[in-house]
Amino acid sequence: MRELGQGFGYLLKGQRWVAQHRKQYGLGLLPGLITLVLYAAALVALALWGTDLVSWATPFADGWDDPWQGAFRTFLTVLLFALALLVSVVSFTAVTLLVGEPFYESLSEQVDVSVAGSAPESGLPLWRDLWISARDSLRIVVRAALWGVLLFALGFVPVAGQTVVPVVGFLVTGFFLTEELTAVALQRRGVRLRERLDLLRARKSLAWGFGTPLAVAFLVPFVAVFLMPGAVAGATLMARDLLGEDAADDPGADGDGTGGADGEPRPYPTGSPASTA
User: In this predicted model, what pLDDT tens digit does every residue of 139-189 receive, in sequence order?
Assistant: First the structure.
């Protein structure tokens, strides 16, 4: 329970940080607005032409009698739209981070500087950072989509499908959102995708406390856009904790950022930033 609260605390600390740094907040809104417009257009198109798409994909049902044909295709249309919404929630962060890579990198660096006086750098050219970010984001979206299909199928299980499965769904979504957001700071430190996942799995409660409230909030239109800059800032503070750069019991405190509670420097677990190459 302590780490659940601590993870939520990072989310609040990040929102407070951007509230105190209006310029970074304003720039951080742009990628979210662009991505929101693209996603809204795609979902509207799916809502308008989803039935036609399902009819085209199920020619074997053309000869079915009513009401079976209509019920079957309506069910598939609803299923398609529900899966699209789930993928949108999970992938929105990944796509927004990719679109806004320079903006969020700068914001994350400013958070590091405000805490420690300096910010780690990957040492890689921008195109290489973008490639690594896109590749890793695609892997996360695929994993999240597989989880989504499994949980949707389990949703038809009586009782558990209407109680346990939705909760598990939000926890899974929150975990992957946390991975995407902390990746901005961790990638600059040379932490690879597999190592990032290991760090978060070792502290699942921390990841759930940070990401699950975001997963719930992101279901509300436009909320994701306004929370994204603060989420990146909070994820940077959380990344410092995951790597032992700050005292875990005071995640948002200003300080020299040189190490943990004992004041001794702690090395990153992955070696040099060049390891992402």
Answer: 887 887 788 788 777 877 777 777 888 888 889 988 998 998 999 899 888
CB 28 within 8 A of CB 234: no
Q: What is the largest CA-CA distance in the chain?
A: 74
DSSP 171: H
Q: How far apart are CA 245 and CA 259, in angstroms?
A: 4
Tokens 């992938």 belong to 91
Query: Which ranges of 100-203 would DSSP assign to H, the alpha helix?
Result: 101-116, 126-154, 160-188, 193-201
Query: How many Å apart are CA 51 and CA 38, to the nearest integer?
Result: 21
Alpha helices in 189-275 (DSSP H): 193-201, 204-217, 223-242
The rounded distance, in Å, linking the Cα atoms of 156 and 123 is 49
**DSSP conformation class of 121:** -
Grouping H, G, I as helix, E, B as strand and the rest as coil, residue 203 is coil
Instruction: Give per-residue pLDDT as tens, 86-97.
Output: 777 767 877 888
- Which DSSP string do the residues of 93-115 spell out, in sequence order? HHHHHHHTHHHHHHHHHHHHHHH
Task: Report the residue count for the chain.
Answer: 277
Burial class (CB in 10 A: 0-12, 13-18, 19+), 126: exposed
* Contact in structure between 90 and 14 (CB atoms under 8 Å): no
Instruction: Report DSSP letters for 16-76, one per residue.
Output: HHHHH-HHHHHHHHHHHHHHHHHHHHHHHHHHHHHHHHHHHH-GGGTTPPTTHHHHHHHHH
C-alpha to C-alpha distance for 94 and 183, rounded to whole angstroms: 10
Q: How far is CA 265 from the centre of its chain?
A: 29
Please tell me the pTM assigned to this model: 0.71
